[in-house]
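INTERNAL AUDIT FORM
Audit reference: QA-55
Scope: verify that the stored structure record matches its stored sequence.
Auditor: D.O.
Record contents follow.
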Amino acid sequence: MARIQFLGAAKTVTGSKFLVDTGRTRFMVDCGMFQGAKNLRLQNWQPFPVQPSSVDHVLLTHAHIDHVGMLPRFIRDGYHGPVWTTPATRELTEITLLDAAHLQEEDANFANKKGYSKHKPALPLYTTGDAEKAARQLRSLDYGQVMDLSEDTRVTIRDAGHILGSGIVQVDLRAGSKPLRVIFSGDLGRYHAKILRDPSPFENTDYLLVESTYGNRQHPEEQTQESLAEIINQTARRGGSLVVPAFAIGRTQTLLYVIREMKSDNRIPDLPIYVDSPMAVDVTRLFCNYIADFDDEARAVFQDTGACPVLCPNLHFVHSTEESKNLNSMRFPCVIISASGMATGGRILHHLIHRLPDPRNTILFIGFQANGTRGQLLKDGAREIKIHGEPVQVRAEIKSMESFSAHADSSEILRWLSSFRSAPKCTFVVHGEPAASEALASQIQSDLGWKCHVPEQLEIVELTGQ
C-alpha cells in the first residue's frame, strides 16, 4: 500500500517536503526550509521526521529556498541518493544553496562577534562545504522526459511557469497490482506572464497536491508597463532615482525584461540600470542560457534581435562591495535593483539608508511583503524605520506593484485545475497559510465538486490504486 506523509508546507506556506512510500521505494518531493515565524524557523534545527538514509530519491519542483533549502542538511545527515530536477533548476539550486550557506555562516560569525546568541559558539544551519556536497548530488531531468525511479515508480516533470526551470511533478506508480498517479503542482505560475510559459495542463490524476499561496486572493488588474513607466518618468523628472528591492530569482529578470520593452518603445529615458546583488547577477546570466524555456514572445525577441531578452540597454552588473557603495554617491537619475526583496538584509539596506531621506527618490516594491518586514512597514506608511540599529527618515515616495507576482492567484489556480477532465480521488491543498488553504479547498469543492483535504503537519495518508 502506497502512502504519503506531509513533512512540511501543511497549513503553512514554507518548508515543502512530501514523502511517498510505495512499499518498494521511498522518495521525497522537495526538501524546503521553513521560513517566517520563529516557531517555524526552529523546525529547521530539529532532526528530520524521516531518517534521510531511508529515502531513495529526492525530486525538486523549483529552486526557491522554501523548496530546496534543507538539502545540504538532509545530505549531511545521511541521504546518499540522487536529487532529480530540471537542468535550469539544477543550476539555480546550486546558486541558491551556496548563497544560503554563505549568509548563514555570516550570521553565525556576527552572532559570535556580538555575543548575542545563547549558543556558544553560534553555528550555521549548514556550511558552504555542505552546500557544495549537495550540489554534487543534483541530477538533470528534461521537461517531458520519462524516468523510472524503480520498477514500480515512473516520474515526469512538466513546466509550472513559476520561475525558470520550475516543474510540476507527475509520478506514476503501481499500488500492488493497480496503477496510481500522483501530481505535485509545486508553485504554479501565472497565465500570460512575461518570459515564461503558462503552467502545463493535465488531463487526469488519482491524487493531486496543489499549492495555495494566494488561495484566498486575486491579483489586482494592473497595466504593468503603464504603471512602471509613470513611476520611472515621474522620479526622473524630480531628479531622483528608483530603488527596487527585488528577489534575485525571477522578479529581477522580469523587471529587466519589462524595462527593455519600455526603452525599446521610448516610453522611458535610457537611464542606467544597476543590478546590485551577486546572486541576481549570476541568475540573470543563467537565464540567458535557457532561452529555449522561454515563451513564444520572449523567444521571438531573441530571434529578432539576437540579444538575450532579459538584458536591457544601459544595464550594469554590480559585483564588489566597493562598486555597490559607489552607487550611493551618484546623484543623477538611475534604477537600482537590489536584494533582499523584503528589505530584511543584503545590499538593499545601504541603498535605503542613502535614498529614503530624499523626497526626489522612489522605492518600489514588486513582491510579497511579509508582516513585520521593513518592506511591509514602508508599504504601510512608516515615516521612520530602523536599519542597522539607526533610525532612517522616510521622505522618498513609496510605491508597490502586484503584477510582478510569480504565483497564480485563486482564479488562476482554478483555471489550471479545470484542465483536468476528471476529478482526482482527493486533492490535497498545501503550501499556504491556513486561511488561504481552507479558502481554496472550499472554492474547489464548490466550483468543481472535487473532494479536498487540507493536511496537517506529519499527517500520513494511504493512496489506493484504480
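Auditor finding: record pair retrieved intact. The radius of gyration is 22 Å.
Action required: none
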